[in-house]
Amino acid sequence: MTTSATPNIERIRIPHDLELLDHQKATIAARLQGYRWRAACDHRQSGKDLEGLVDIASAAVHEPGVYAYIAPTYTMVRNICWDGIRGFDGRPYLSVIPEELIADKNEAELSLMLRTQHPDKLSRILFLSGDNADRLRGLPLKGVVITEYAQFEGSAVLDVVRPSLNASGGWLLVLSTPLGIGNHFHQLWTMAKASPDWWTASRMIEDTHYLDGRPMVAKADVERELREGQRED
After folding, report:
1. Cα-atom radius of gyration of the chain, to the nearest Å?
2. Could you list the residue range(s) of the whole structural domain that residue 132 is in?
3. What 3-state class would DSSP assign to 161?
4. How far apart are CA 151 and CA 162, in angstroms?
5. What tens digit of pLDDT does each residue of 30-70 get?
6. 3-class SS at 56?
7. Distance between the two ends of the chain, CA-based, in angstroms?
8. Regarding beta strands 111-115 and 122-129, do their DSSP bridges make them parallel or antiparallel, or are they unpaired?
9. Is 23 a member of any domain?
10. Containing H/E element for 184?
11. 103, part of any domain
12. CATH number of the domain that 138 lies in?
C-alpha cells in the first residue's frame, strides 16, 4: 500500500461518473459553508445515502483523518453502502469514489483508505454498525454520517461520537426518514430546527426531482399505495 498522493489529485472528481441532484448538493454545500452539525429528514428513496457517501468521501480526501459511516446494524451498513447497488443505473454505491483515490479496501472490517490532497497522508473511512455504541469509543473521528437514525435503538451512538467530534473540530451529518414522534430522531430534529448551530432540511416527495425535472417519487404512485391500503404515515 502506498501512502503518496496521486498526481493532480485535486482534479479528481467526487462523485465519479454521477451528477448529484439539487437536494443532495444542498446537504454537502452546508458543510462547505461551515455547518458542523447537519440533519436531513428525507422521504424514502430520496438518495440520501448517495449524498452521505459523496459527502464523507469528499471531506476525507480534502482533510486527512478517520471518518465513520454508521447504520443501525452491520447488515444494513453492508447492504446500503458497502455492497449496495444503485437502482437507477445498476452501479455500486461505492463507485462514487474514483478507484485512483482508494489506497486500500479492507473487506473484513469494511473500511477504505483514501489518498488525500496532502502528500503522504491518508484518510480512513469506517463503515460501522450502531447496535453496540461502545465499539465506537476512542475513535479519533473527524467526520461522521449516521444514516437511518430513526431506526437506531436509542441515542447512544450520537452520545458516543459527539465528544470525539468536539475534540477534533469535526462534523456530523444525521440522515433519516421519519418514524413517528417521541423517539430519539424526533427529539434531535426538534432540537436541531431550533438551534442556529444546526443546518436542517426536510425533503418531501414534492421537493426532490431528477435532473430532467421528473419527481423522484410520483404523486400518483403514492395515491395508488394509499388506495391499496398502505398507511398514510
Report:
1. 18
2. 36-227
3. helix
4. 19
5. 999 999 999 999 877 778 999 999 999 999 999 999 999 99
6. helix
7. 49
8. antiparallel
9. no
10. helix 184-194
11. yes
12. 3.40.50.300
> What whole-number distance in Å separates Cα of residue 32 and Cα of residue 104?
27
The set of cell numbers assigned to 121 is: 497522508
pTM for this entry: 0.88
Pull the grid cell for residue 54: 459523496
Asked if pLDDT for residue 165 goes beyond 70, the answer is yes
In a domain, 155, yes or no: yes
Percent of the chain at pLDDT > 90 equals: 65
Whole-number Cα distances in Å, 52 to 5, 59, 69, 138: 24, 11, 8, 23
Cell of 65: 483523518
| Cis-peptide into 15, omega within 30 deg | yes
For residues 174 and 36, is the Cβ–Cβ distance under 8 A?
A: no
Among all chains, which residue has been given the C-alpha cell 473511512? 125
Please write the tens of the pLDDT for every residue from 117-163: 998 999 999 999 999 898 899 999 999 999 999 999 999 999 999 99
The pLDDT value recorded for residue 2 is 42
Q: Which three cell numbers stand for residue 48?
A: 440520501
202 to 48, 83, 115: CA distances (angstroms): 12, 27, 33
Residue 106 inside a domain? The answer is yes
Into how many domains does the chain fold? 1
For 39, 100, 140, the CA distances from 29, given in Å and listed in that order, are 13, 24, 24
Q: Which three cell numbers stand for residue 96?
A: 462514487
